[in-house]
Amino acid sequence: MAMAKAIFAVAAVAALVVQLAAAGVDHPVGGNGAWDAAGTSYNAWSAKQTFKQGDTMSFKYASSHDVTEVTKAGYDACSGSSPIKSYTDGATTIQLTSPGKRYFICSIPGHCAAGMKLEVTVAAPAVTAPAPTKSKPRHQRSVASTPAPAVAPAAGPSTDELPAVSSPTAAAPPKSSGAASIGMLGAKAVVGLAVAVALAM
User: Fold this and answer.
1) Beta strands per DSSP E along 50-196
2) Taking the complete model, does pTM exceed 0.70, yes or no?
């Protein structure tokens, strides 16, 4: 029984933390929430704010004003003739539910032109990518690399000539250059004969 109560309490606290984390920030319009024609530059205030999806904006105003959400064209023309939504309750909280631009005016004639207009840019919530996981390959054998056999450099003046081949019973080749050429020709003949035999098979 005590264990069930403890689990329930932990679950309730976790749900509250998640709810608080999801709740956005409230932005009182103009810094104090006052929506009027007293000369406040609402767009200068808005430019210093960071509005995120899930935040709210709160307006406080007298019954001689309203809060009207309009399109960009309505905002530019200070016209509330085709409002997206209009509020007259004197204390309005607007939910910023999606990213993008939002436009607000007071639709009472002359009030928008007197400065009761507000453009807000709502940023999308930051998306954090999950950290990449390092997976270990399973059942993979490590194979040691085999070094390539080293080739000894050929002795002599040219590397594209084959060395002289001698049989175990043959005497050392003579030191004259003519005999070396004959030995070289003999080696080439042996290689040529071996190639011809291999092709004939």
Assistant:
1) 51-52, 56-60, 67-70, 85-87, 91-95, 100-105, 117-123
2) no
